[in-house]
Design goal:
With 242 residues, the protein is an alpha/beta fold. It has 2 domains: 163 residues, P-loop containing nucleotide triphosphate hydrolases (Rossmann fold, 3-Layer(aba) Sandwich), CATH 3.40.50.300; 69 residues, no CATH class. The chain is built from 10 helices and 10 strands. The strands form 2 sheets. A 6-stranded mixed beta sheet has the order 6-7-8-3-9-10, sandwiched between helices. Strands 2-1-4-5 form a 4-stranded antiparallel beta sheet, covered by helices on one side.
Length: 242
């Protein structure tokens, strides 16, 4: 579904990603782990069109994405749930969800069906549909950010640090939702500070270090790797997956 070859990307004269190659197959959860500053968020921004690649190739469902506007990429079904949630605080939950639907326009009846599906995953959002997004808890805002992306009927969801800043019980709930989405056929590319939880959830993973892919493999193999254990699976990672 997603193919990246020899991707360089960054900001102005600063190159953050160097020669990154990876793939995500349909129906997979693929985790990207790495230290802060490794380039994980830049990678998702380069895929979604928020950062223009300097060189290399990015393909989604067989279509080249480099140079394509972010809204067109979203319209293809490649949706980005950004770090920090970035909900529209003055707008209601319902209004935020409708904004997500604009990425793939549809008649009102179909948008209502999409919203009902979002509410089936997140009943709490239905309870708060008339509440302004800025008054939600952190976990509820993360639910809203995911729900907003689901309103565009994605075939692949890219999630950037979905558990960041959340209480363990809220983070665990988010991971359970990601597993449910994959069981329904959705492909997920996941960046997550809790490497242990991410690899338990994922089929495969990549370790990104200073802008380069250092390791890749089945999630279980990466969890068993001594270097990965020492660098990313130590005591600093809360065991919210248990």
């Amino acid at each position: 579904m997603l193919r990246i070859r020899n991707l360089d990307a960054g900001y102005g004269a600063l190159t953050v990603l160097q020669g990154v190659s990876l793939h995500v197959d349909a129906g997979e959860i693929v985790a990207i782990i790495g230290a802060n500053g490794a380039g994980k968020s830049t990678l998702l921004r380069a895929i979604s069109g928020l950062v223009r690649p300097q060189c290399g190739r990015v393909e989604f469902a067989g279509r080249p994405l480099c140079g394509m506007a972010a809204e067109r990429i979203a319209g293809l079904g490649c949706l980005h749930v950004p770090e920090g949630r970035q909900v529209f605080a003055p707008m209601t939950v319902r209004e935020n969800l409708l904004v997500g639907g604009y990425a793939r326009p549809a008649p009102r009846a179909e948008l209502d069906e999409r919203m009902d599906r979002v509410f089936s995953f997140f009943p709490r959002l239905k309870e708060r549909r008339r509440q302004t997004a800025g008054t939600l808890s952190g976990g509820e805002q993360q639910m809203l950010a995911i729900g907003r992306a689901l309103m565009a009927c994605p075939s692949m969801l890219m999630m950037d640090e979905p558990s960041m800043g959340l209480a363990p019980i809220a983070a665990k709930s988010i991971f359970e939702i990601v597993a449910r989405l994959r069981s329904g056929g959705l492909t997920v590319l996941l960046i997550e500070q809790n490497a242990r939880a991410a690899l338990r959830l994922a089929d495969r993973g990549y370790v990104l270090e200073t802008g380069r892919i250092l390791l890749e493999g089945a999630a279980g193999d990466l969890m068993a790797n001594h270097d990965v254990q020492r660098a990313y699976l130590g005591k600093d990672y809360s065991r919210i997956d248990e």
